[in-house]
Amino acid sequence: MKKIAVVTGGARGIGNGISRALHEAGYLVAANYHSGVETAKKFHEETGIPIFCWDVSNYEACERGIAEVCEALGGTVDVLVNNAGITRDSMLHRMNPEDWTKVIVTNLNSVFNMCRLTIPSMRDKNFGRIINISSVNGLKGQIGQSNYSAAKAGILGFTKSLALESASKGITVNAIAPGYISTDMTDAIKEDVKERIKAGIPLGRFGKIEEIAHSVLFLADEKSSFITGAALSVNGGQYL
Ligand code: NDP
């Protein structure tokens, strides 16, 4: 039987690549989206992958969304990829409380929401793969990203704790910490800043969406059963 995979923010950017890779590998994929309605529709038309709209920062919305996915795909979630994320960058002395909270609830509370709601059925069937998308900046910090780095570092602690709790149940919980990847998120960075960042990456370039998708496929594989609580850096060799 095909395994069911849910990818949050799965219709755009890195999530789009992850959804496609899982689909091509034979998973039944549900791609979640929130505000990008047109992008999600186009993604669905191109791939045939079903799309589901909900706000991952809202617990009740996640509850409804997951129920809808399970009903539509005829089973419970086997593979959960917590990919949805935002930035609201500014130096801390200028950061307003709304930008702090928005990033924390979207990037970190969402991981609690989605895991809390899918882990019971994974425990029941003694199988699950949870892959949380963190960031190189959660490991090393970044100017203007105290909110984002705090959320992404929080994901790492969460991942390790849930991995320990789930180890006896055939569920692995891992994080991927991407370096800079070419997407809408990094398109927003000024050209001169981009060049400076690239100079600090041993491979001399930003990563590709497919390179993150490939790492997700690897961790989702049944044969990756001895890897749990790990934070896999996929960052072109950036020194941390
Ligand atoms: P994009 O800005 O291109 O896409 C963000 C995705 O998150 C969209 O699919 C968006 O969906 C979704 N999303 C945002 N808010 C919500 C919400 N409340 N509910 C549901 N979905 C939401 O980002 P990337 O593809 O670049 O990033 C994907 C992940 O990878 C993020 O977690 C990011 O932090 C992480 N990352 C990215 C790096 C990079 O260099 N690009 C580096 C390291 C980590 P919609 O448009 O429908 O709202």
**CATH architecture type:** 3-Layer(aba) Sandwich
Shape: globular
Proportion of residues in helical segments = 40-55%
Strand content: 5-15%
| Rg value | 17 Å
What is bound: which ligands? NADPH dihydro-nicotinamide-adenine-dinucleotide phosphate
Secondary structure tally, helices: 9
| Integer tally of domains | 1
Number of strands: 7
Write down the CATH topology: Rossmann fold
Output the helix-strand order: EHEHEHEHEHHEHHHE
Structural class: alpha/beta
CATH evolutionary superfamily: NAD(P)-binding Rossmann-like Domain
CATH class type: Alpha Beta
Distance between the termini: 41 Å
Averaged pLDDT, please?
A: 97
Q: How would you characterize this protein structure?
A:
Helix content is 49%, strand content 15%. It is α/β, with parallel strands linked by helices. It has a single domain, classed as NAD(P)-binding Rossmann-like Domain (Rossmann fold). It has a seven-stranded parallel sheet with strand order 3-2-1-4-5-6-7, with helices on both faces. Helix 1 (13-24) crosses helix 9 and helix 4 packs parallel to helix 6 (146-166). The chain is globular and about 50 Å long. It starts with a strand and ends in a 6-residue tail after the last strand. The relative contact order is 0.14. The protein binds NADPH dihydro-nicotinamide-adenine-dinucleotide phosphate. NADPH dihydro-nicotinamide-adenine-dinucleotide phosphate binds at residues 8-9, 11-15, 32-36, 40, 55-57, 83-86, 106, 133, 135, 178, 180-181, 183-186.
